[in-house]
């Protein structure tokens, strides 16, 4: 007998078995009976049992030890984008894979890598900074933050981290920050926060879409146990986490801008040995008392809601001794006849926007000596509408991006 005839017989047998099984199923379910047939009463299957069946798959049944080993191998082998997206794909398989992936992936402070969107709200590494660049589009007044050394070196492999849009108003200017490159609405999940300036462009306030966890950090930098209740992220808007001020240049003298950043959500003790900076592990604001939070949800009046949001934005000022950053003073170069800073090759074009931020530590603070001159954030120009941004602990990518955006606003009173 030939192989083709054997395959025909096998296909005929399987078709016959399928038809017989289908007929048996129809008899059991009552399909094909006349109108006089009454199906026996039986309890209907619960609606919740169906999703449980659909969620189960062959991947969710892997042994926990094998699954942990697989994800660890993937996470250790993919250390740059776009290959890093394989780690994100592992978290999207099912719930068990997601929990193991979240357990394996470390924060940027620990590994120096950005993996999930929440990584943009977590502090950067303590040793080597995370190197990014900002592309400005003048026509649309948008700014996009990418992960990489520069557009020339990264090319198409550049990973978009955040985007911002400049919105001018009568007495102020807003920079709306979003995860998406073309969606800056404040009513969806892409909204991250905003930067608001005054009329002169000398004072800025950074608003976060969720309250930081500075209430969990004591004055000594120790972490308390987090509370258990949480609010949906859709109700969280505009928490004041930092303020930026530029000194007025009354005499119109030549020189770089002078700026100070007060990080209300980061205590100065975070720079001490063993200090902790706020590190959220999920999106959402955790709170102990319901009345102060649910009042924002139950309020029907828009004005009352805006007042409540303003009050909640002030609630982030509970850090008794916040971290203050100042721009590093440049030196005057006689041969080049300009102010110079050592950007270590990351800045190539002279600009008044270039700056380096260091901690403004008081003599009374018992901090290590190496923290005095350590550059926490540096920003500078490398080409037309291309700027580099390097940040490290205790700033997050969102906070560093918002500080750099303040340099793009017009400051006639500071120059």
Layout of strands and helices, then pairs:
Blueprint: H1 3-29, H2 49-55, H3 64-77, H4 85-91, H5 95-104, H6 108-111, E1 130-137, E2 142-147, H7 151-154, E3 159-168, E4 173-178, E5 191-197, E6 203-208, E7 239-246, E8 259-267, H8 291-298, H9 302-314, E9 322-327, E10 331-333, E11 338-340, E12 355-359, E13 377-383, E14 386-391, H10 397-406
Antiparallel strand pairs: 1-2, 1-14, 2-3, 3-4, 4-5, 5-6, 6-7, 7-8, 8-9, 9-12, 10-11, 12-13, 13-14
What does this molecule look like?
- Residues 120-410 form the Tubby C-terminal domain.
- It is a single chain.
- The protein is an alpha+beta fold and 415 residues long.
- It folds into 2 domains: 55-105, Monooxygenase, CATH 1.20.1280; 120-406, Tubby Protein, Chain A, CATH 3.20.90.
- It has 10 helices and 14 strands.
- It starts with a helix and ends in a 9-residue tail after the last helix.
- Residues 28-54, 214-231 and 285-315 have low confidence and may be disordered.
């Amino acid at each position: 007998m030939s192989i083709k005839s054997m395959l025909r017989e096998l296909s005929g047998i399987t078709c016959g078995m399928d038809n017989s099984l289908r007929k048996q199923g129809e008899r059991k379910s009552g399909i094909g009976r006349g109108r006089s047939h009454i199906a026996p009463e039986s309890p209907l299957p619960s609606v919740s049992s169906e999703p449980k069946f659909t969620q189960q798959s062959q991947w969710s049944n892997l042994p926990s030890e094998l699954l942990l080993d697989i994800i660890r191998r993937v996470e250790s082998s993919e250390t740059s984008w776009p290959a890093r997206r394989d780690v994100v794909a592992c978290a999207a398989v099912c719930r068990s894979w997601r929990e193991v992936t979240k357990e394996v992936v470390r924060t940027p402070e620990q590994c120096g890598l950005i993996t999930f969107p929440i990584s943009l709200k977590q502090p950067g590494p303590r040793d080597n900074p995370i190197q990014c660049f900002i592309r400005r589009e003048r026509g649309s007044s948008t700014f996009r933050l990418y992960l990489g050394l520069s557009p020339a070196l990264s090319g198409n492999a550049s990973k978009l981290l955040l985007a911002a849009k400049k919105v001018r108003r009568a007495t102020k200017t807003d920079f709306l920050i979003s995860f998406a490159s073309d969606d800056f609405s404040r009513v969806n999940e892409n909204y991250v926060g905003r930067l608001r300036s005054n009329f002169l462009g000398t004072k800025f306030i950074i608003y976060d879409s969720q309250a930081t966890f500075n209430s969990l950090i004591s004055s000594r930098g120790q972490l308390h146990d987090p509370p258990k209740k949480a609010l949906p992220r859709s109700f969280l808007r505009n928490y004041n986490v930092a303020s930026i001020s530029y000194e007025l240049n009354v005499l119109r003298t030549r020189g770089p801008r002078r700026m100070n950043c007060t990080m209300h959500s980061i205590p100065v003790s975070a720079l001490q040995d063993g200090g902790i900076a706020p590190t959220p592990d999920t999106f959402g604001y955790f709170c102990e008392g319901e009345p102060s939070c649910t009042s924002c949800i139950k309020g029907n009046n828009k004005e009352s809601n805006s007042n409540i949001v303003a009050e909640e934005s002030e609630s982030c000022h509970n850090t008794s001794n916040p971290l203050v950053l100042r721009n590093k003073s440049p030196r005057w170069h006689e041969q080049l006849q300009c102010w110079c800073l050592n950007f270590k090759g990351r800045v190539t074009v002279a600009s008044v926007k270039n700056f380096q931020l260091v901690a403004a530590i008081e003599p009374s603070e018992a901090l290590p000596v190496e923290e005095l001159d350590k550059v926490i954030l540096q920003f500078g120009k490398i080409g037309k509408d291309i700027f580099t941004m390097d940040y490290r602990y205790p700033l997050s990518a969102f906070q560093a991006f918002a500080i750099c955006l303040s340099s793009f606003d017009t400051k006639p009173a500071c120059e």
